Amino acid sequence: MINVEIKESGNVKVVTLSGCLTIDYASEIKKNFLDAISRSKSVRVSFDKIEEVDFSFLQLLQAVKISVNKKKKNLALIAPLPPALENAAANLGISLAELCPVKPGE
Amino acid sequence: MSTKTDEFKATFKSEAKELLDELEESLIDLEKQKDDLELVNNVFRNLHTLKGSGSMFGFEELASFAHQLENIFHHVRKGNLPVTQDLIDLSLRVGDHIKLFLEPGEMEQETVREGEGILTAITALSPDSTSAPPPPAEPAQSGDTTYRIRFSPHPEIQEGGSDLIKLLEELGDLGNCRPVAYLDNVPPLEELQEEHCYVNWDILLTTSQDIDAVKDVFIFVEDESDIAIDVIDENQIRDDIQYKKLGHILVERGDISAEEMTEAVQSQKRFGEILVDKGLVESKKIESALLEQKVVRNLRTQKLQLETSSYIRVPTEKLDAMVNLVGELVIMQSNLQEVSSSFNSRVLKRISKTANLLIRELRDKSMAIRMTPIEATFTKFKRLVRDLSLDLGKEIQLITEGGENELDQTIIDRLNDPLVHILRNCIDHGIELPDTREADGKNRAGTVHVSASHSGAHILIVIKDDGKGIDIEAVRERALKNGLIKKEDQLPEKETLALIFEPGFSMAEKVTNVSGRGVGMDVVKKNIEALRGSINVDSTKGSGTAITLKIPLTLVIIEGLLLRVSDKFFIIPLAIVKRVVELESEQLAENGRGYILDQKGKPIRFIRLSKLFGIADSNSPDQQIVVVEHGGRKIGLVVDKVIGEHQTVIKSLGSVYRDIQAFSGATIMGDGNIALIMDVERLIKNTPQ
């Protein structure tokens, strides 16, 4: 299962992802990110109780970064990052730091 | 479009059933050899393929089940989980449940709940499902090889269910793995097709494994990706630390073309030219070496093409349609032969003869296509024997032999139920409990031996056990009790044993799930006889029982002998004909029966078919006796004329005539007339000595 929560804080949209960040839910995640990007200047991504991460999510994150850069907006991940995400990136040879800046959580 | 989709789904179902049979076989073997890594790998591969193909063809739930169990066996392969009896039992349950997804129609609620229970059990068995971090890099050892792997998945790779993280993890299991992902082709989010893969990798892998182990990692994705694996460093310990030049690395990786490198170094001569210029080798030798390269490469390409095109899967319906047409062709050829014999034309006779030869060959080849080894049926017995042994608390070893013998696929399909029933009887009634066997001086584990062998135009299947055998006296008593025989009937042992095939006969003291309802062996016999086969039982009390089935190899076309009685035509199978003799009138008794003597002087009873079938006797002076043999008995059939051999395409008489026992079918002759195919085996059995 996937749960996507979008909260607004000023000009920043915080997209909180929970559950499985896998290909089965990629379409839903994409829709939510498109919505978040279109309606604010800054997008933050936070994670809560992540069960599984697969390749499709990391690729999607790269696509989010490209869209955000094209629109001259900001994107960051909020620490702490879930182990599942870090392990997946490491196994795939993707540098999370190069993919997306990581900001400390509140 | 939907017809194509249905065809693909049907193909997947057929392949999935084979995969599930292989999976079951591997699990049953793994149960006995829990440390066998090869078997673990077999199980993993089967699940992986089921998952991928299932997902591709829209069987999502099936793919999901396969995926869950594949995860477990992934951990087993890595040594994180042992193979236990619980795992084997659960895996067999998963296999059984997956089979249900291949059945038509909606699943019942109870079955759905059962599936949920299975998934819960899998989760309970599974370690943490999140992927582990990659292992820390170990220092290279001497003898390690470094490979450069360029892995470029096709966009649709994930549609086949491939998990790219698991793939790279598997590569990491081989050694020190350093992947670099290239994300340049990932489009903006608005254009992203989230199921596609836009990423490719360069991976450096240092491992003690050989290149085949590396290639094996990609075996299930090689059709959905471009993979190049190169050895770039064979040994870490070198005197010379020099490696390839930059240009070569870039060309090898495909980052620049050879032409671009060539342009950049255009003043350099070719390697071969340099050698010739230096006088180190003649140009002819350079040409010869280049030719060797080309020849070997071409040979390897051809071999690969041959291997990948060795087999083709054909739906049974298409085969049946082809065999039907061949049957019609055989009838047409018979017609042609008939016509050509009535014309005095050498050309026509030659054409008819050539057509006959070609059609016979076509008939034999099309029959051969339908022939399948009976091995697959024998393999399914392993699971049956295992489950029944556990249910009944018995220890049973199954030995099979002759699985390579081939039968028409239709016959194999129809043999399955009778064989299963016979096997159940063996295990339930035949093999004793381990303690009983031990007390009788036998091995605790009983043996059931299933064998197949050819016997002329038939196949013999023998199911033999070393159990307690059939008690003849008990059979007699039970038959008396059930009213099958009278007290004064003194049947020989063989006929007494044959009573077990009578409807309502059962030796079981009570009805169990396994057997005992008495509706089994008579149905078995009926099913075997419907295949124009026969069944025989031999037994020795205390030692065991052997049940022998004799089944024709094919039901479609046989070599027959065409006979005429008055103006009626009959066919008998050529395989049972021993000889043909002239009838001398004094041999015939008043009742139409008489005797001739065989070569050993033994009398053979013969009967007039005209009398048997109520046909007006022609009283022809040239009548003949056809001596036939079956089950060790011979009889003679009196006919007006033996016309000759006839390729007989067997046509069913239809449901209206299904109870007529004298004939097993009919055929259409060349002139359009019908010839009835006699059930000679039954006739021999019913003829008194």
Short summary of the structure?
The complex is a heterodimer of chains A (106) and B (689). Chain A is α/β, with parallel strands linked by helices and 106 residues long.
Give me the count of strands of chain A: 5
Share in β-strands of chain B: 15-25%
**Uncertain segments of chain B:** 236-241, 511-518
- Oligomeric status: heterodimer
**Class from helix and strand fractions of chain A:** alpha/beta
Description:
The complex is a heterodimer of chains A (106) and B (689). Chain A has helices spanning 26-39, 55-70, 83-92, 96-99; strands at 2-9, 12-21, 42-53, 74-78, 102-103. Chain A is α/β, with parallel strands linked by helices and 106 residues long. Chain A has a 5-stranded mixed β-sheet with strand order 1-2-3-4-5. In chain A, α1 runs parallel beside α2. The radius of gyration of chain A is 12 Å and the shape is globular. The N and C termini of chain A lie far apart (26 Å). The mean pLDDT of chain A is 89. In chain B, the strands form 5 sheets. Chain B has a 5-stranded mixed β-sheet with strand order 6-8-9-11-10, with helices on one face. A 5-stranded mixed β-sheet of chain B has the order 19-12-13-21-20. A 5-stranded mixed β-sheet of chain B has the order 14-17-18-16-15. Residues 236-241 and 511-518 of chain B have low confidence and may be disordered. In chain B, α2 runs antiparallel to α3, α3 runs antiparallel to α4 and α14 runs parallel beside α15 (409-430). By secondary structure, chain B is α+β, with helices and mostly antiparallel strands. In chain B, 44% of the residues lie in helices and 21% in strands. The longest helix of chain B is centred in the first third of the chain and has 31 residues, at 2-32. The two termini of chain B are 65 Å apart. The chains are: A alpha/beta (106), B alpha+beta (689). Chains A and B meet through α1, β3, α2 and α3 of A and α6 and β2 of B.
